[in-house]
Design brief:
The chain is mainly α. The chain has one domain: Cytochrome Bc1 Complex, Chain D, domain 2 (Orthogonal Bundle). The chain contains 6 helices and 2 strands, in the order ααββαααα. Strands 1-2 form a two-stranded antiparallel sheet. A hairpin with a 5-residue loop joins strand 1 and strand 2. The protein is globular.
């Protein structure tokens, strides 16, 4: 029984690890790359303070993107059906999926949904992988720590428990 509980504990950590993973890009470089994104997107905290970009409204606010289910930004109602359908599957944004998505949003949705008819409202593609990693690092640096899947609080940068975030 003890062995089974230990194995369960390690399995739980393995699944929660992506929620705690640090971005591998360069956030400072990503701030410059985000200039390409700010035509449509903003990074603004819950109080509305713009942390990155301009107050664009064409695309969703990217604050809290890491760990958020696709197509679920509360204050945005312009998502395409395919992105909402992806979110309904339980899909949550992490670095690897973001980097793949911004390379070719339509291709990403078609593959993830296994639907050649899937479409993306985001037509912009960021071709350079380093830039994709950097912009994700920038977004993550301005966002609260992603909450693990079980809803427990993620550790803050200083090691203290940060409040769980609902997006």
């Amino acid at each position: 029984m003890k062995l089974a509980l230990t194995a369960l504990g390690f399995a739980t950590l393995a699944f929660a690890a992506p929620a705690f993973a640090q971005a591998t890009g360069d956030a400072a470089a990503g701030e410059k790359v985000f200039n390409k994104c700010q035509t449509c997107h903003v990074i603004a905290d819950a109080s509305g303070t713009v942390l990155g970009g301009r107050n664009a409204k064409t695309g969703p606010n990217l604050y809290g993107l890491p760990g958020r289910a696709a197509g679920t930004q509360a204050d945005f109602n312009g998502y395409g059906e395919s992105l909402v359908a992806l979110g309904a599957t339980g899909f949550v944004w992490d670095e690897a999926s973001f980097v793949e998505y911004v390379a070719d949003p339509a291709k990403f949705l078609k593959a993830r949904l296994d639907d050649n008819g899937a479409r993306s409202k985001m037509s912009f593609k960021l071709g350079n992988e380093k830039e994709r990693l950097d912009v994700y690092a920038y977004i993550a640096s301005l966002s609260p720590a992603a909450a693990p899947a079980d809803g427990a609080a993620a550790p803050a940068a200083d090691g203290a428990a940060a409040p769980a975030v609902t997006n």
